[in-house]
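Quick one, probably user error.
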């Protein structure tokens, strides 16, 4: 049996270049740390293959105590981060190619938090004023913020959040894995431990601690990590101009010192996001990715949720957000997920899909809408839904297709519920969806049915297909997943462009009512043929003031009473509600003539109290 992970490095498909930057800004820093800093730059295979092309850049920054060569560290039976990045861009399912920049901002007190401080040095300025220009001079990168992102974990995640808010002119996308946030939760819990260790071992003196710490193997005594962490945070957040580090607690009791603690809170990403400048910066981002483990020892899952709420309140693109089952450590496998997310959204790539004859057809870059239909959710989608042959929308769309004609486009086709059914009936129909996983499941079902569907991976608001249609259907109220009004208007406009004159768009809308406002919770269970149990916990709530629905879904696979796999998806907001007037206005603003507005999937006129209304809009004939 071949090992899942080989124990030594393998030949790379891309290339890792190692350089040194001689920094003017770090020269004579307060700690006397080196001004010459190593920097690594990963170049995907396309960089060599396409010498006239420029690429987006993604800056990867480290957590507390991190130094650059730690990226090569390997945990048991796992690949290191450099290998994970190479696998990502060298695999069959690679995202848009990007240059990945590994930045070193290490300090001898453990970290810099990637900000400027008289206690550590000018590490924010180093990153923004020296590293970024050097990268753009040295490599073929797009030298603009719309093609530049930053990501990291823990203190690196913190750095990604604050750097994007401080310099939105430089960075147009951010990703944070368990980044330091909500300081009263993630930092304050360590103050008491620090006081006890200082009292019991160091006569209440940080100076004695550092003298002892540097005389022996680091991190070899209980309390080392807390003392290093809190001192480093003080050096970053609350050092006086003369270099005196101020801590926010009394060293004898742990009581807060309000004026120092307030200095720390000003650097909290959650609070920074509430300022006018923070909101404007977040609103301008092209991509925001947030995740954390649900068992994080520093409660950074709570900080992630708090930051997510501020991103949503800022009114920018809907962030990707996921809480997954893990602690703070051993989550290096999350890096490629975020890098993929940023690479695709900061890229100008035009993708290709397989046509019916195997020829590539144009595809636009992945949509900015958040992709939650993946993983366990996608794999259990058809099973939990069950038999849909008697659903009312099936004959309704068929009647519309018979009236307006073919070809047909099934938008948000998912696993092919309607697409494969109609294709099997001889209807000329294409499918488009934003989820790779759902499209792959659709493709996997097709051969058993003797079908070859033409499928595209695109978002509704960036639709750009090679032909025009007589009928476009958008089943399951999928249009309401577009949260940004501008994106919704753009999507309606793209549907209009893709219709032939006289063609029709058929689109249903869910109507949220009092029960949705009160909140809906349920658990659904179903046993698979292999005996495993699929369980879905779901909680939905609608806010009529914002017209947003929020969702919290947990999918589990249970074998012999034990959960062997799980996936949680929290989206807040997840869905936008529409009144009939708002929906018809969207259609008419795009140039549609309203043909019908009906209740559910019937011929009956919509009335208040109906749970669904469906609009049929026609593109005027020339």
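Nope, works fine. Designed sequence:
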């Amino acid at each position: 049996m071949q090992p899942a992970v080989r124990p030594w490095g393998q030949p790379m498909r891309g290339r890792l270049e190692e350089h040194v930057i001689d920094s003017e800004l770090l020269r004579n820093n307060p700690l006397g740390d080196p001004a010459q800093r190593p920097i690594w730059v990963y170049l995907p295979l396309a960089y060599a293959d396409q010498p006239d092309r420029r690429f987006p850049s993604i800056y990867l920054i480290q957590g507390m105590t991190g130094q650059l060569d730690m990226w090569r560290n390997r945990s048991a039976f796992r690949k290191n981060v450099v290998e994970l990045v190479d696998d990502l861009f060298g695999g069959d399912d690679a995202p848009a190619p990007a240059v990945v920049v590994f930045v070193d901002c290490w300090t001898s007190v453990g970290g810099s938090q990637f900000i400027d401080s008289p206690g550590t040095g000018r590490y924010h300025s180093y990153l923004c004023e020296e590293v970024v220009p050097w990268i753009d001079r040295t490599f073929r990168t797009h030298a603009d913020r719309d093609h530049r992102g930053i990501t990291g974990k823990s203190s690196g995640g913190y750095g990604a959040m604050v750097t994007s808010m401080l310099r939105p002119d430089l960075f147009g996308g951010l990703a944070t894995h368990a980044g330091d946030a909500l300081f009263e939760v993630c930092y304050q819990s360590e103050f008491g431990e620090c006081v006890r260790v200082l009292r019991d071992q160091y006569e209440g003196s940080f100076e004695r601690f550092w003298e002892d710490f540097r005389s022996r193997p680091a991190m070899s005594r209980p309390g080392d990590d807390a003392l290093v962490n809190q001192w480093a945070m003080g050096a970053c957040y609350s050092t006086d101009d003369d270099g005196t580090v101020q801590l926010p607690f009394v060293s004898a009791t742990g009581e807060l010192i309000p004026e120092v603690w307030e200095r720390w809170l000003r650097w909290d990403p959650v609070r920074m996001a509430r300022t006018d400048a923070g909101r404007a910066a977040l609103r301008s981002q092209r991509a925001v990715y947030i995740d954390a483990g649900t068992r994080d020892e520093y409660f950074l899952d709570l900080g992630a949720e708090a930051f997510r709420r501020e991103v949503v309140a800022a009114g920018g693109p809907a962030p990707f957000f996921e809480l997954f089952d893990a602690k703070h450590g051993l989550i290096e496998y999350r890096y490629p997920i975020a890098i993929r997310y940023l690479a695709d959204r900061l890229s100008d790539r035009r993708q290709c899909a397989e046509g019916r004859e195997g020829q590539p057809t144009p595809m636009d870059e992945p949509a900015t809408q958040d992709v939650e239909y993946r993983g366990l959710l996608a794999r259990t989608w058809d099973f939990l839904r069950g038999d849909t042959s008697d659903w009312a929308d099936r004959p309704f769309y068929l009647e519309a297709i018979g009236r307006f004609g073919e070809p047909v486009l099934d938008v948000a086709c998912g696993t092919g519920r309607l697409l494969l059914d109609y294709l099997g009936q001889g209807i000329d129909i294409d499918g488009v969806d934003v989820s790779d996983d759902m499209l792959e499941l659709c493709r996997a079902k097709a051969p058993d049915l003797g079908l070859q569907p033409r499928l595209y991976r695109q978002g509704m608001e960036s639709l750009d297909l090679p032909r025009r249609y007589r009928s476009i259907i958008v089943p399951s109220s999928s249009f309401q997943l577009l949260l940004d009004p501008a994106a919704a208007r753009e999507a309606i406009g793209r549907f209009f462009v893709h219709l032939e004159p006289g063609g029709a768009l058929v689109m249903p809308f869910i109507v949220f009512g009092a029960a949705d406002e009160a909140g809906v919770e349920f658990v659904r269970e179903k046993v698979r043929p292999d005996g495993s149990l699929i369980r879905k916990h779901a909680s939905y709530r609608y806010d009529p003031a914002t017209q947003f629905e929020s969702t919290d879904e947990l999918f589990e696979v249970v074998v012999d009473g034990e959960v062997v796999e799980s996936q949680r998806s929290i989206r807040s907001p997840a869905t936008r509600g529409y009144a009939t007037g708002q929906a018809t206005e969207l259609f008419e603003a795009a140039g549609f003539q309203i043909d019908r507005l009906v209740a559910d999937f019937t011929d009956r006129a919509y009335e208040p109290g109906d749970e669904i209304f469906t609009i049929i809009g026609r593109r005027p004939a020339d």
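Residues 349-371 have pLDDT under 50 and may be disordered.
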